[in-house]
Amino acid sequence: MSAGGDDMIPLGVRLTVQPDPKTMTRAEKRVMKEGFLAMATHWHSNFLPRHFEESAKTKYRHQNRSSKWQKRKEQLARLGKAQRGGLVDNVLTGQLEQTAKAIKTISAFPTRATVRMSGPKYITMNPTTARGQPDKAKEITTVTRREQKTLNAIFKKHVVRGFNKIRRRSKKVIRIG
Q: Distance between alpha carbon 123 and the CA centroid of its chain, in Å?
């Protein structure tokens, strides 16, 4: 991705000149940032909702819930107090699902992207302090290998397109003689 190997002088007829490396670096950073932003946005809008489906337990390898909790959840479902019949691990009242899907801030950088979501008080990023609780933050942020490949493809598509635009804009052909 660097400008170093792109300078060509075929037969002394054309000279391809790259712009100032500082400008190129800035443009590269912008392209990388856009790629990470596209990837994070896709994850939030397409993959995050899958964590709140019944199949999520096996797909994302959720920690097993205790039989006591499962019975309690089934009881709440019969009373109409548990969403989706109590069959989805990460859904009881639906508060986690609603807040995680709705409120987000995506920050993209040339090296990564961060998705900040709100959640109920019982969600902690430090699961060791939540006695007996599964690591729900990990459960809703896990991606499968197939999803990782899709995210990589989205990133690559944006970065390749961005670098091709930079390349088209930055080359100057100077005719000699």
A: 20
Q: How far apart are CA 163 and CA 141, in angstroms?
A: 29
* Overall residue count recorded for the chain in this entry: 177
Residue 45, CA distances (Å) to 51, 101, 153 in order: 12, 8, 16
pTM check: above 0.85: no
The total number of structural domains in the chain stands at 1
Distance CA 147, CA 159 (A): 18
Q: Are 105 and 116 in contact (CB under 8 A)?
A: yes
Which residues contact residue 122 at a Cβ distance below 8 angstroms, ignoring those fewer than 6 apart?
A: 130, 133, 136
Nearest to 92 by CA among 115, 58, 116, 123: 123
Which amino acid is present at 118?
A: S
Q: Would 167 be classed as within a structural domain?
A: yes
- What gap in Å lies between CA 137 and CA 101, rounded to an integer? 13
Helices in 43-176 by DSSP H: which ranges? Answer: 56-59, 67-78, 95-102, 136-141, 145-170
Reported as a single tens digit per residue, the pLDDT across 56-106 is 888 888 888 888 888 888 888 888 887 777 777 777 778 888 888 887 789
The DSSP-derived string for 12-45 is GTEEEE---HHHHHHHHHHHHHHHHHHHHHHIII
Helix (H, G, I), strand (E, B) or coil at 170: helix
